[in-house]
TrEMBL record:
Transmembrane segments: none annotated. Keywords: DNA-binding, Transcription, Transcription regulation. Pfam families: AsnC_trans_reg, HTH_24. GO terms for biological process: response to amino acid. This is Transcriptional regulator, AsnC family. Signal peptide: none annotated. InterPro entries: ArsR-like_HTH (IPR011991), AsnC-type_HTH_dom (IPR000485), Dimeric_a/b-barrel (IPR011008), Tscrpt_reg_AsnC-like (IPR019888), Tscrpt_reg_AsnC/Lrp_C (IPR019887), WH-like_DNA-bd_sf (IPR036388), WH_DNA-bd_sf (IPR036390).
């Protein structure tokens, strides 16, 4: 959705979005009760929000630490070329890179990387450094990992 593609949301749509962001597994019946609609009307509204691209999917939030990824880092990559195919190819085979953002400024990309150890992080940043200069920031803690989106 572009800036001009914003759809009009009423208070019920906003309540549905809030409830689904709080609990993506909420049943249609419970969601309907929460927003004071019938289950069929609620299902129709959710379907409309999906069709309009407002709701883009449903997913489980998984603990990286529970899976053995004890280190989170942000790696800034100064990519010297306009040919992004090598970067995309590396991202395709490096699942430890969980986010990649093309940004303005001295660096071209900011990557969120999960690692099992410092030596694992060194291996990962070494692979990324084959594409350009990297600067790595290790995360001490994350006081805010996720925030519910509110309509603007």
């Amino acid at each position: 959705m572009g800036d001009d593609d914003r759809i009009a949301l009423d208070r019920t749509d906003e309540a549905i979005l809030k409830a689904l962001q709080d609990d993506g597994r909420i049943s249609t019946a419970d969601l309907a009760r929460a927003v004071s609609l019938s289950p069929s009307s609620t299902a129709d509204r959710v379907r409309r929000l999906v069709d309009a691209g407002v709701i883009t999917g449903y997913t489980a939030t998984v603990s990286a630490t529970a899976l053995g990824y004890t280190i989170t880092a942000f790696v800034r990559l100064a990519y010297p070329s306009g040919n992004y195919k090598p970067l995309h190819s590396l991202l395709d085979v490096t699942p430890e890179v969980v986010e990649a953002h093309h940004v303005t400024g001295d660096d071209c990309f900011i990557l969120k990387v999960l690692a099992r150890s410092m030596s694992d992080l060194e291996r990962l940043t070494g692979r990324l450094a084959t594409l350009g200069a990297v600067t790595t920031n290790v995360v001490y803690s994350s006081p805010l990992t996720r925030r519910r989106l509110e309509p603007g």
